[in-house]
Amino acid sequence: MTDKWRIYLTSTFGKLAVVRLDMGLAALAPEADKTVLLGLKIKLIDPDDRGFPRSGEFETLRQIEEKLNDLLRTEGNTTYLGCLTVNGTSHYFYYGSAAKDFTEAVQQVMQSFNAYQWQCAEDPDPQWTFYREALYPTPYELESMNNRDQLMQLARQGDNLNQPRMILHWASFLTEAARSEFVERIGEQGFEVDSVYGFGEHQLPHPFGICFGRIESLALEGVTNTTIGLKTLAAECKGTYDGWETSIVKQ
Description:
Elements: E1 5-12, E2 15-22, E3 36-43, H1 55-75, E4 78-86, E5 89-96, H2 99-110, E6 118-124, H3 129-135, H4 139-156, E7 165-173, H5 176-187, E8 192-198, E9 208-216, H6 220-236, E10 239-246
Antiparallel strand pairs: 1-2, 2-4, 3-5, 3-6, 4-5, 7-9, 7-10, 8-9
């Protein structure tokens, strides 16, 4: 378990889902001695209209999760991935070496929570494919998470996020010609160049930079669609998209 936990919303089989995931495991996966995917499914007693637990039940589920993780941690043969909640059910996922030990630990914990219906499952997964392809966020979801963090930082500084304003973006390119092509293509999308700059051809992989912008809304979906589009366009022009910023508007 690492300290790089994140929470994000996604869609699973057409249903809204919330995932809480140890994203730091991506740098460690797979662990050679933990080749079995282990799962605990708990049916919620009183989900809300979205299929998520209400505040009271959320606390009970937190206790189950903590007790199970504490018990498994003492045995040292599992790695906790995270939790996915969807359609009135919470799923807790681990990798380990023995399903029998996991099931016994679950049985021991759930004896104190006998109001719940639960089920264990196992599946061989030595490459941790489930973690990488089912739990880990998609590139769009990752971009949305990063943009949400930036928007929340603005909000904490008193920004009125409902106010459209100039948003500046940065990108850098392998050659001056590639940058020129990018300038032409973003111009078709209503962006205006703020400045161009260089770092010296031998100092950075992409030494030809550009700052550009347009007036936009700060709605998360719109910002993410913009940044995803700019990342794609920059890559097509042999460059990288380097991020965005804006001034704080408090009115």
